């Protein structure tokens, strides 16, 4: 829908409409795309035309239906390590698409957004899984840290003691 709309109207109009439709702010779009908020503000105000690479990043966020995906709800640093990883199950390939969240409220909001974007399933923290399962109609899996992650976190704390 968004990718079609950008050809029918001015890009900044299409961007504004899509942000309104999804209830997103430019700052949230910045977090989702990795594009600096100041750049997005300039594009939205008409002060600057977007580069093709910028348009591609925005379209990828608004139109994630290029293949099936599983949403990973986590802090940005974890998303950076896992974004785009591919998983094959039952003959179907799924890619991991990250949704950044830094609070309980963010997690709930992005879980609904991920489902609305077409996520086949959602991976999240154990404390959120049962609540998110009640909100969406896709499978929800718990992200369980492995021993290396626990040891790394413990070492990080030990260094600060």
Major β-sheet annotation: 5 strands, mixed
| Pattern of helices and strands | HHHHHEHEEHEHEH
Mean pLDDT, to the nearest integer, reads 86
> Which geometry do the CA atoms define?
globular
Ranges with pLDDT <50 over ≥5 residues? none
Strand order of the largest sheet: 2-3-1-4-5
**Strand runs, count:** 5
Amount of beta strand: 15-25%
Tell me the Rg in angstroms.
17 Å
How would you sum up this structure, described in words?
The protein is of the alpha/beta class and 161 residues long. Helix content is 57%, strand content 17%.
Provide the descriptors you would attach to this structure in a database record.
161 residues
What's the SSE blueprint?
Blueprint: H1 2-8, H2 11-22, H3 26-33, H4 37-45, H5 52-62, E1 68-74, H6 76-82, E2 86-89, E3 92-100, H7 104-117, E4 121-124, H8 126-135, E5 140-142, H9 147-160
Parallel strand pairs: 1-3, 1-4, 4-5
Antiparallel strand pairs: 2-3
Helix pairs in contact: 1-2, 7-8
Quick recap:
With 161 residues, this protein is α/β, with parallel strands linked by helices. Helix content is 57%, strand content 17%. Helix 1 runs antiparallel to helix 2 and helix 7 packs across helix 8.
């Amino acid at each position: 829908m968004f990718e079609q709309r950008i050809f029918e109207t001015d890009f900044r109009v299409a961007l504004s409409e899509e942000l309104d439709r999804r209830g997103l702010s430019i700052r949230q779009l910045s977090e989702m795309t990795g594009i600096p908020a100041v750049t997005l503000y300039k594009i939205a105000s008409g002060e600057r035309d977007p580069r093709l690479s910028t348009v591609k990043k925005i379209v990828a966020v608004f139109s994630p239906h290029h293949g099936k995906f599983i949403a990973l709800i986590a802090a940005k640093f974890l998303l950076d390590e896992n974004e785009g990883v591919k998983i094959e199950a039952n003959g179907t390939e799924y890619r991991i698409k990250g949704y950044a969240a830094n609070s309980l409220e963010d997690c709930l909001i992005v879980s609904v957004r991920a489902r609305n974007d077409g996520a086949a399933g959602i991976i999240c923290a154990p404390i959120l899984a049962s609540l998110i399962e009640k909100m969406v109609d896709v499978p929800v899996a718990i992200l369980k840290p492995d021993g290396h992650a626990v040891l790394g976190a413990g070492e990080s704390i030990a260094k600060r003691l």
